[in-house]
Amino acid sequence: MGLLKTDRKAELTAFDETKAGVKGLVDAGITEVPRIFLLPSPENLNTDQEHSLPTIDFKGINEDPIRRKQVREEIKDALGSWGFFQMVNHGIPVSTLDEMRKGVLAFYEQDNEVKKQWYTRDRIGKRVVYNSNFDLYSAPVTNWRDSFLCTMYPNPPKPDELPPPCRDILLEYSSQVKKLGCSILELMSEALGLDSNRLLDMGCAEEIQVTSHYYPPCPQPELTMGTTEHTDAGFITILQQDHIGGLKIFYQNQWTHVHPIPGALVVNAGDLLQLVTNDKFVSARHKVMANKVGPRISVASFFLTSLGTQTSKVLEPIKELLSEENPAKYRSTTGKDFFDYFYTKGLDKTAALVHFKL
Q1: How far is it, in rounded angstroms, from Cα 205 to Cα 336?
Q2: Record's superkingdom (predicted)?
Q3: What confidence score (pLDDT) does residue 1 get?
Q4: Are 331 and 199 in contact (CB under 8 A)?
Q5: pLDDT value at residue 127
Q6: Minimal CA–CA distance to 315: which of 192, 206, 178?
Q7: How does the average pLDDT of the chain come out, rounded?
Q8: How does DSSP classify residue 37?
Q9: What is 178-212 written as a DSSP string?
Q10: Strands 296-304 and 207-215, sheet pairing
Q11: Of 203, 237, 197, 202, residue with least CA distance to 319
């Protein structure tokens, strides 16, 4: 069932102009997945469960030096092989996590006419960007999800710039996630044998974007994808996923399901972290399955370098991690150049990082 480029463009435009996202299609009662969402071949929804993602207990890392050293080693192992780990006892109360998910759900469940005011494809200067598929017109296949993104740091939005259903909790949650992310980046620096502030001083937490995804129930989940296989572009991502699951990571040549643990958060390395650590930490491929059950809610907090032209630092492999046996594997870039490339390319199974390899 080939779809001509002109037909596809017209169908994408028609979908985009509804400003109702995938949720709008489901609310309208569709029983089949529209053509723009169809994968080239059906997805296998079953996965061998041989591997289990490392779970790291953060309890006591600031009080007990022995415990801190142990956690550091666990992070080093997890990010060197999986590129991912789950963490428990991370310090963000379960009540805050629950409220954040409820706030996201309330945003998406508003009347569409109210929600439309936030819908845009223009990221420039916008505090809140709500749309379906940031790469709608460039990606080969449309994903079965809607998203809204808020840039929460370095200049947090004023409360009245945020959608009322999740305004207060978004400010509270992002403030707690920022603190946690900085603490993780310090542990990562130590794990690499560097000064604990090294990654922070390089600008790994200069900008934080909190992106809330809504995956509606799908009538034919094997025919489409919640999120296409990809690697994250930034330094680290802290992900909250609900009980439905669907996240899979590519590890040792097979897809492994990440089972949700109540109250846990998932952490993963992005392409820029792999670049500056010269492959000491890996940015792993991952994807999200579509599901008959839903909606699935997830909240991803991306830790990035500042993306403004004036402030964009040069990013390159850290000198102390290089040697004659282990020379730099990536060329220098700036955060702005890296992300310009990432957004233009869209999610197409090839990591943006490949473009920067020496």
Answers
A1: 15
A2: Eukaryota
A3: 45
A4: no
A5: 83
A6: 206
A7: 93
A8: G
A9: HHHHHHHHHHHHHHTTS-TTHHHHTTTTSEEEEEE
A10: antiparallel
A11: 202
Tokens of 54: 């490392």
pLDDT digits (tens, 9 = 90+) for 82-126: 999 999 999 999 999 999 999 999 999 999 999 999 999 987 778
pLDDT at 68 (0 to 100): 97
Question: What residues contact 262, with CB distance under 8 A and at least 6 apart?
Answer: 94, 243
Strands (E), 227-295: 227-230, 236-241, 247-251, 254-257, 265-269, 286-288
Rounded Cα–Cα distance for residues 212 and 169 (Å): 13
User: Which residues does the chain have with pLDDT short of 70?
Assistant: 1-4, 46-50, 308-312
Structure-token pair, residue 3: 């779809």
Domain that holds residue 178: 5-356
Count how many domains the chain has. 1
What's the CATH number where 83 sits?
Answer: 2.60.120.330
What sign does the CA torsion over 319, 282, 297, 288 have? Answer: positive
Q: How far is CA 172 from CA 109, 149, 156, in A?
A: 21, 16, 11
Question: Alpha-carbon distance 319 to 55, whole Å?
Answer: 30
SS3 269: strand
For tokens 């390319």, the residue is 345
DSSP 64-116: -HHHHHHHHHHHHHHHHHTSEEEEES-SS-HHHHHHHHHHHHHHHTS-HHHHG
Closest CA to 22 of 133, 101, 104: 133
Bridge partners of 85, per DSSP, are: 267
Neighbours of 138 (CB within 10 A): 13
User: Could you give the residue ranges of the DSSP H alpha helices within the chain?
Assistant: 5-18, 21-27, 65-81, 94-108, 112-115, 167-191, 198-201, 271-276, 335-345
What would the two tokens of residue 1 be?
């069932």
Q: Which tokens belong to 334?
A: 């700036």
Q: For residue 352, how many other CB atoms are within 10 A of its CB? A: 23
